[in-house]
């Protein structure tokens, strides 16, 4: 569980920096990263891809978080 949260924080921070938004603070990065990891898991499984290993999990969660932030910004 702790590892999942750490990956969520890293993914949220990376996504915030990649989408011109900057970081969202520890809690914001955690929320974006954790929700993004679910989105990334869905997108990767839809495409027939899977993530094995820590780096791959971070990449998957970051991709999901970027998708999540892009959708949120469409409605903003």
Describe this structure in words.
The mean pLDDT is 85. The protein is an all-alpha fold and 76 residues long. The chain is 80% helix and 0% strand. The chain has 3 helices and no strands. The termini are far apart. The longest helix has 22 residues, at 25-46. The protein has helices spanning 2-18, 25-46, 54-75. Helix 2 (25-46) packs across helix 3 (54-75). The protein is globular.
Give the SSE map.
Elements: H1 2-18, H2 25-46, H3 54-75
Helix pairs in contact: 1-2, 1-3, 2-3
Average pLDDT confidence is 85
Beta-strand level of the residues, as a percent range?
under 5%
Secondary structural class:
mainly alpha
| Major β-sheet profile | none
Q: Count every helix, treating DSSP H or I runs of 4 or more residues as helices.
A: 3
Number of strands: 0
Percent helix: over 70%
Q: N- to C-terminal separation?
A: 32 Å
Q: Low-confidence segments, ≥5 residues, pLDDT <50? A: none
User: What gross morphology would you assign?
Assistant: globular
The topology string of helices and strands comes to: HHH
Radius of gyration: 11 Å
């Amino acid at each position: 569980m702790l590892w999942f949260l750490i990956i969520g924080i890293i993914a949220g921070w990376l996504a915030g920096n990649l989408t011109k938004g900057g970081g969202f603070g520890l809690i914001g990065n955690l929320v974006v990263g954790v929700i993004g990891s679910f989105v990334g898991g869905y997108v990767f499984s839809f495409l027939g891809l899977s993530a094995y290993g820590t780096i791959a999990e971070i990449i998957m969660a970051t991709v999901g978080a970027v998708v999540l932030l892009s959708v949120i910004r469409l409605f903003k």
